[in-house]
Amino acid sequence: MLAVIVPIVAGAAATIFLLLGYALALAEDLELLGHALVGAGWIAAGVALVGALAGGLGLLGAASRSRAAEAGEADGAGELASAREAWRTALAERGMVPFLVAQANAGCGGAAAVPGAPV
After folding, report:
1. C-alpha to C-alpha distance for 80 and 6, rounded to whole angstroms
2. Is the pTM of the predicted complex or chain greater than 0.70?
3. Domain total in the chain
């Protein structure tokens, strides 16, 4: 979670600091403050870059662990596929088809009973 928040906040801060810093550097009275804000902006941009790289490396690590876990479960793939197909069939027969038939009947103004629907 921190790998998501840090680059976003640091990037926003870098943008604001750099814009304000370069704008204030143009004014002769606030030139010192402008240079300080530019320095802070570049530091915040570096933090955002490091945070984004760390988050990307974490994402790659999680993906590689997931891929290794999938390779280890190859022996139960037949059972998994048949269970998934049985679940999809039951979902269609008991959930989607009665709902769609009821919606079609309601749209036509008919009050026909839906087979398998609770009363």
Report:
1. 39
2. no
3. 1
